[in-house]
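Incident log entry.

Two folding requests arrived from the same account within the same minute. Monitoring flagged them as a possible duplicate submission, but the sequences differ. Recording both here for audit purposes.

Request one:
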Amino acid sequence: MRYHFTLLLFTALVIYSCTTNNSQKEIDNVTINYLEEALDSLIIQLTTLSNATDTTIAKREFTTCRIRYKKIEPFLEYYFQGLIRRVNGPALPEIKTDDNTVNDATGFQVIEEIVYNDTLDKNLLIEQINILKTDISFIKKNLQYLPIQDHHIYELIQHQLIRTATLGIVGFDSPIAQLSIEEANASLEGILHFYNTYCTTKEITLNTAVINGISNCQAYIKQNEQFNTFNRLVFIKDYLMPLSTAWKIAFEKSIEQSPNFYTNKVFAGTLAELMQGKKLNPDAFSPFEASVSTPAKIKLGEQLFYNTALSKSNTISCGTCHLPNKAFTDGKVVSTRNIHGNQPQRNTPTVMYAAFQKTFFYDSRSQDLENQIENVMNNPNEFNLAPDILTKKILTDSLIVVAFKKAYPNKKVITAYETKNAIAAYVRSLMPFQSKIDHFFQGKTILTPQETLGFNLFTGKAKCGTCHFIPLYNGTIPPWFNNSESEVIGVPKNPIWKNATIDSDAGKYNTNPIEQLRYAFKTPTLRNIALTSPYMHNGIYNNLNDVIKFYEVGGGRALGIDLSHQTLAFDQLELSVTEKQALISFLNTLTDKHVN
């Protein structure tokens, strides 16, 4: 087909394409034509899939569809973010809490569930394929309007490398078929095509570094094709990370002036930099431009964090429940440290790396740290003091007044917002990236064989990484980091393994009364997890062995809890004793050096 010819042509003419200065418009037209042909081919293949008469044929045709999609995924994910959730999002309803609407799941992952069922539901298959074809046709019709820029090409390829490392090979978008490794190879083919099209540097050494980098990645995949045994640690560290760096260098040589990627973005670097904890911007989630952190704000925020004057009774501060030596938790099932009134309902979460979340609290009821802090101030069981009254109270301290003036030199009047923002600035600074796994990716240490096995289980067979995305190990989805996920996993009221009762805390349902959100809780970070026991929102499990057992058996439903909308997969992981020990060994590498 013409689609295959086009791909082979660009692959063969790599040196020519990298040394020929075509006009931007001509290059863009080539790309649009390529994408149109690829989408046409995908639509034809989906039609073939809809004609499948049994699951064997359906699986084969589905695989072909996925491979064709992966080759053009970088462009579609970059330019059609709003629609791609329908095309390749999780097979779960899309819930919009701003207007409490629920949209049924569609796309490849829904089709995957149909195709990999014991019996093929032809009517449902055709229905879902028709929806997907409609969405793809919409994309095709709008390709001509894409505002393609050189720096977009750089970023979308970096995004695809990040997506491959953090979502693709982990199995996030191929949870049943486990086509992830084969699809990674297809993604690399797509990256090569777009590189060949847009590369203009005449430095053969740089071109060779990129092309050889892609070739080396593909060769490694060819030699290691099995999902459960694929060494993701080696693939990311020794293959994808160097490729991401080579692409950055080649790109910088191909344009006259690099644009500023860093304005208001959570991350705008290479995959290598992401895995090393570099160039992440904690202020990207701050509500206003004036909210951006400064050293003076952080210093003031730290003072306020430990100041008991923030509470009505002058007995508690943020630091009362968030202890540095416990990774800013308190080691309690729920806090019992001089809280006003009733006992808090939930376990104290870490505030380390809290900046990298789109929502806050277990039930996601706050949209930024400043608002979360305001909730704590107003809560009668916590500070029990309105923010404006609290601010007037602490401003009676002359030293605090001086610190505020240094932190906010242009503010004539200090308001409650500055108090909240200063504390938020301190919390946003709690992102050291000094754990053993960080040092490994930074090239400062090596992992033991047991830790290596644990990482590969985490990102593979054990499926931890499909919810706790590396390298933040929380529910904020790379590479855009603009959405923090929640899950319904069925945490029990008591730590029993049969005939359990679900914990009464309804989670997100309390704020947004949608049935699919009943018992939904935000996915927290696992960084420093060795220090943050007990675990779960209700502190039900005292050790990591029990946490792993809960996930291994399949969550609440496996414990006898009736929970039809559980989002955690019901199937058992069947981990060996050795594998469980390795998983815990890896989780211990997430402990930051200065905290331990």
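Request two (distinct sequence, not a duplicate):
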Amino acid sequence: MPELTVQGHHLQVDQGDNLLSALQVANLPINWSCRAGQCHSCLVQAPKQPIPAAAQQGLSPEQQADGWLLACQCAVESDMQLTLHDPANDGLPALIETMEKLPGDVLLLRLRPQRPLRYRAGQHLMIWLSPQLGRSYSLASLPGEALLEFHIQLREGGLFSSQLLHGRPGQTLYLGAASGHLAYDPAWHDRPLLLLASGTGLAPLQALARDALQNEHSATITLWHWSSHAQGCYLQERLNALVETEQQLQLHLRARSELATDLRALRIRSRSTLALVCGSASFVEQLRRPLFMAGLAGPQIIDEAFLPRR
């Protein structure tokens, strides 16, 4: 039986056991959220040891070289010496600059990192309020901007968002490394972009649109957003101002109740179009077939779903 050595603890586990589950059974303080390898909350470090490739998928080359892995994606095959992730030691400190409530129960959070963060517009990262409380959120800002921006959906009974509301300017939070495939590629410069978002799935897609425009994207960018809130899109004022200055940007702000009708009317005017989709898992799933039926092949559809904690 493989043995896990974790900061002074010795655990015997069955070969092939899931590492996250094994650490939880032992009541060790391992963080977790999605269990799908997307949020990166369950990081552990196993330097200078063989690590299954699946356990490092999505991590940066620097993280991989330092022996970081995702416990939820790691099957234990041999003895391992592990160190649990500590946001205060391993994360990037960032100070709360401003917090602003927007329509639709969205909190606009701006942070000032204590050193530069490497990221691409549209990627996501972990925000830690404490060593045991962190969640993954998409970046709504652009690289090079002084502040990092996030759009936090406030949920009744949500542990993270309810505690964040008590935050104050100057308070220190800790950030993980940026990751994710939802980012603009300059090679797309002459391909029409169809950006489809619901809720705070707008955060990464509006950033991606602005990044494309800064990179002198020459084709049309069409941004759709469906809102479930009576007041409509929480970022409406900012987006309308952007459309006034960017001729190739087309904007459609719709109610979520109109989604099915809008999808039936969807027409793809160019075979080179790329569709980027972000929102809840049910929203992303609902769009896959209509996009395929509209003429987009699988590689032309890039999506990212917000997964609930499970």
